[in-house]
Amino acid sequence: MTMELKLLGWTLVLAIVQILLAAAFRNQETGTQYNLSARDEPAPPPRPVTARLQRAQANLYETLPLFAAAVLAAHIGDRLGDLTSWGCWMYLVARVVYVPLYALGIPVVRTLVWGVSLAGLIMVIVALLR
Hints:
This protein has a single domain (3-40, 47-129), classed as Up-down Bundle (Four Helix Bundle (Hemerythrin (Met), subunit A)).
């Protein structure tokens, strides 16, 4: 298995972790009874950290399909190399770092880290299109 496919797999693990993390924080707010119910009644609004975790999760889901498609296309098209390897590492590491930065409400640095993840994605796409 290539490094790029392994990094894609770890990115999927990150996605699952983000689902569980946001759900755990939300469960603390609404309680298990509410979460096991049909949720016919509206829940209270999420607290700031929970809302940030939910937004960080949604943010990952904006680029994850693009990242997965680019990695798989580069793999199938035999376009793997240094550019895809570095791009995948940049994407995954930046996405991991992004979660606590967003949860803690750290502005500017969080956006810069997001930019690194986007640069990694672009590197994979460039390798695919060369």
